Amino acid sequence: MGDACCGGGAASGTAPPAGTTGAPPPVPPAVPTGRLDDAAVGERLARADDLLGRVEGVAGPTTEAAVAAVQTLAEIYGEALARVLDLAGEELRARMGADELLAHLMVLHELHPEPVEARVAAAVERVRPGVQEHGGDVELVGIDGTVATVRLQAKGCGTSAATLEDAVREAVLGVAPELTEVRRAPAGGGSDQAFVPLDTLTVARPPSVTAGERT
């Protein structure tokens, strides 16, 4: 089974370099005492994904009923989220979109107020100053289906370049989990190069459980 139906985990690894150009993005509110932070949410999503995978691995009517129950709950939660967004003003929608978990859920239920192109472009601009500090540069070339292509100039040893690639990849997939791949546009002719194999991106991809899709 793919990522848990409740929204998919956050991209793992070191956070992309700080910095932004233009107006800063909305800042998510601090996590109140006793609530789950992003790391704790990611751990529970991974746990839920593992448990659901085990359930699906056991054939039989009980398994079918359990999966159907999860799918039904996901549909109900998706509708509840849609109603919240209907009642929310523009400022609240922006704050919700800046929250990693809520953003993943909105993408899962096809409710995110910003198109994927806008989210990815903003993410690339946020990580760009950090890349420039290391003597490189990055810009979004475009999005084709579920693949984003960026033009990345990186100086230094292979390890340094790989670190920048990881930062860009995580920045992009963190705001657009519906994407499956980030490709680096070639400096000259030739084919684009994927930053990483597809099977390493599952943590940032939206859940494969169709239960969460709104009809």
From TrEMBL:
Biased composition (Gly residues): 1-11
Free-text function comment from the UniProt entry: May be involved in the formation or repair of [Fe-S] clusters present in iron-sulfur proteins.
Cross-referenced SUPFAM superfamilies: Fe-S cluster assembly (FSCA) domain-like
Source species taxonomy: Bacteria, Bacillati, Actinomycetota, Actinomycetes, Kitasatosporales
Pfam families, A to Z: NifU (PF01106)
The protein's name in its UniProt record: NifU family protein
Domain NIF system FeS cluster assembly NifU C-terminal: 120-182
Biased composition (Low complexity): 12-22
Cited InterPro entries: FSCA_dom_sf, NIF_FeS_clus_asmbl_NifU_C
Residue ranges of the region described as Disordered: 1-35
